[in-house]
Every structure is written in C-alpha cells, then in structure tokens.
C-alpha cells in the first residue's frame, strides 16, 4: 500500500461492528458538518503546547477517534509521523486516501480507543471534539491505561472538549455548514440517561441537501460524561501528570472554575 499501513483485523471487525453507524460511515458529510474549525490555528496551538510542556522531542503523533483526520495534513507538513485509530472503516479509508493524495505515508489502525496496543510507542497523543468515547468508568480507566502504555515518558496527551465542566443535562445545538454545493443542517443533542452512572445519549443528526438530493444521516451514541475531578484522579492513577486546562483553545485563558461560559476547553496531561 505505498508504505501506508491500514490494519483491519477480522476478529476486531466483527466485535466492533455494532458500535459504528451512519454519520461515521459518511466521512465527506462528516467533514463538511464539522468544518467550522480553524485547523491550521489549532495545530499552532498544539505546537505551542508541545514547545512549552513536552519533555521529549516529538516525532510520532497519535489521534484517537481520528475519523477523517482533519489535522493530519498540517501535522504531516510539519514533519510529524501521523498515526490514527478509529472504529469506522469508511473514515480510515477516507484518511488513507487523503494521505496518499498528499503523497505521505501514515499509519491507520482499526482499533477501539478503550483498549488497544501499538507495536511502536508514540510521543504525543490527542483526542479532538469530545471524541473520548467511553460508556462507563472501567472503560475510562482502561483508555488511560492504554494511552499510558503507548506514550513515551515525558510525552503529552492533549484533549479537546473531552472533560465536561458543566453538568450534562439535556442540550441542543444547531448550525448549518456548506461546501461544494452541499448544504448540511446539523443538530447535536444530549439527553441524560442515568445520573449515577453519568451516562447520556448523544444524537447527531444531519439534514443534507446534496445538489438537490435530500438525505438524512444520524449518529446515536451512549456515553459516559467525564467530570474534572475524576478526570484528574483517573489520569493521575494511570501515570499522568496534570499540566493544565484552558478555555476555548486559548492558552492565555487557564480555567479556574469561575468562568461563566466554557466552550471547547482543552486539557493537557504529561506521561510521568
Ligand atoms: C466526532 S468524530 C471525530 C473525528 C476527528 N477526530 C475530528 O476531529 O473531527 C469521532 C470519531 O471517533 C470514532 N470512534 C467512536 N468510538 C470509538 C472508539 N471506541 N474507538 C475508536 N474510535 C471511535 C468514530 O468512528 C468517529 O470517526
């Protein structure tokens, strides 16, 4: 495969099938729907975090729930090796095609972020847009234990919007995205399922007008909310040191808990 690697194990394919449904099987629509981010700027922020807080030189960068790998191109151009893991074969194929078109080699694995191993360690890990998909406390612990095993000591784990700083009750957001003659109305909503287990249902619904043809794409996930104190406790127990958290990707806005609005908070941990 031109040096690119893409691993789709048979056993894993069977066991994870039910976890993936339609939005994550439609990378192009996903990419348009979530194209509101300023990716080059986000990569600059990640680089600033690396410069300031990493204790090791960074070569191998790993994205959890990489999907369509929005930050991959910028990272490759900066000379990093890119490794992505995801459950969706469609997303992985899409990222692989993108890397090939750009003329880069990447490593993509069909793996569950809850529990995984990699042959070669990595120097920096990240999870974007709240994509830390766990359903219970055991899975959360297992995720951090797996990350701890693959991340070199002194390396950073960067998380975007993965910690819930507000109580997760029922929320609904709407926005519209357009590209190449495709218009998508997006609705993102959450509904609390169990306040002791901290589980909630997340629904992402896309109403698509693709050059005059209407389509609906949906994604329903059952997830466990992750609150700040347990995030600190669990990550520390799994070998991480807390570096900081900031509001809205702004390294000049460290969170102190008194903020009225917290949007897209980023958190940084370092492997001890
Ligand atoms: C919201 S998308 C994020 C895609 C991309 N990282 C971004 O920044 O736009 C979440 C991705 O996580 C993947 N995913 C969901 N649960 C997963 C799991 N347990 N292990 C690995 N990937 C998972 C989905 O297939 C999907 O591609």
Topology:
Elements lengths: L4 E3 L2 H7 L10 H7 L5 H15 L6 E5 L7 H6 L3 E6 L2 H14 L4 E4 L11 E6 L9 H14 E10 L10 E9 L2 E13 L4 E12 L2 E12 L3 H10 L2 E7 L19 E6 L1
Parallel strand pairs: 1-4, 2-3, 2-5, 3-4, 5-6
Antiparallel strand pairs: 6-12, 7-8, 8-9, 9-10, 11-12
The structure holds S-adenosylmethionine (SAM).
The site of S-adenosylmethionine (SAM) has 20 residues, from strand 3.
Major β-sheet profile:
8 strands, mixed
Helix content: 25-40%
Helix-strand pattern? EHHHEHEHEEHEEEEEHEE
Low-confidence stretches: 7-21
Helix vs. strand class:
alpha/beta
Shape: globular
Question: Can you describe this structure in just a few lines?
Answer:
With 272 residues, the protein is α/β, with parallel strands linked by helices. The protein has helices at residues 10-16, 27-33, 39-53, 72-77, 89-102, 137-150, 228-237, and strands at 5-7, 60-64, 81-86, 107-110, 122-127, 151-160, 171-179, 182-194, 199-210, 213-224, 240-246, 266-271.
Keywords:
alpha/beta, 272 residues, 2 domains, binds S-adenosylmethionine, single chain, N-terminal domain of TfIIb, 7 helices, 34% strand, Rossmann fold, 8-stranded mixed β-sheet, 12 strands, 4-stranded antiparallel β-sheet
Can you put this structure into words, describing what you see?
By secondary structure, the chain is of the alpha/beta class. It has two domains: 5-164 and 224-271, Vaccinia Virus protein VP39 (Rossmann fold), CATH 3.40.50; 171-223, N-terminal domain of TfIIb (Single Sheet). The protein is 27% helix and 34% strand. It is built from seven helices and twelve strands. It has helices spanning 10-16, 27-33, 39-53, 72-77, 89-102, 137-150, 228-237; strands at residues 5-7, 60-64, 81-86, 107-110, 122-127, 151-160, 171-179, 182-194, 199-210, 213-224, 240-246, 266-271. It has an eight-stranded mixed sheet, sandwiched between helices. A four-stranded antiparallel sheet has the order 7-8-9-10, covered by helices on one side. The protein is globular, with a radius of gyration of 18 Å. The termini are far apart. The model is unreliable at 7-21 (pLDDT under 50). Residues 20, 24, 34, 63, 65-67, 70, 85-88, 91, 112-114, 128-129, 131, 133 line the site of S-adenosylmethionine.
